[in-house]
């Protein structure tokens, strides 16, 4: 088991790609170039089905599950340790991620695709552009408001994606965050009539977003590269709760 953990601890997803400077690279003083995103979310987060203490420690399937859980945690720990070498601070990252969360949601609500391109990866931009197009075919405009501060922000997973098998330092990192916030939403038709939501009511919203950054290119910055449907996560937790109640 120790040998397997050693292998999995340093496991990195390798992808073939070409370095490219997309036109949406941000400029803050000097020109900062962003690497083309690998275009995937590596090992998307999903909740682990709860198992009993007895099954975990006294059955073969439980031992395998414990080993798998440990490997998942070690992968995240290794990715974070590599990120820290670049000056990572969890508090500073959470602040930046929260600003991005608010900014991207605001741009989605206003339909500002030009500005949105700067904050998301190429594949994510294509998906969000289609999302805006579909929404605008149904609603004329929407009101979206974030009630600050956030109720909770936490890291669910961290993963590395390598782009050069001969250089282990050429990697992208992906951090999966959970946002629990209060929001207000209202949608209108072409005549200004309310057709969905109520901007006077606060709704608790849970989002799971994946942020990505190159660790080997000067001037790289965090961008949204994926969103994970929370209904699947909720279903997993409900299933676990039902199992506990049955016992």
Structure description:
This protein has helices at 2-9, 53-58, 60-84, 90-110, 113-116, 122-136, 230-246; strands spanning 13-14, 27-28, 30-31, 141-162, 171-188, 194-214, 223-228. The protein has 247 residues and is α+β, with helices and mostly antiparallel strands. The chain has a five-stranded mixed beta sheet with strand order 1-4-5-6-7. The two termini are 31 Å apart. 19% of the residues are buried.
Cross-sheet strand order for the largest sheet: 1-4-5-6-7
- Oligomeric composition of the shown chains: single chain
Distance between the termini: 31 Å
Percent of sequence in beta strands: 25-35%
Annotation, overall tally of beta strands: 7
Main sheet? 5 strands, mixed
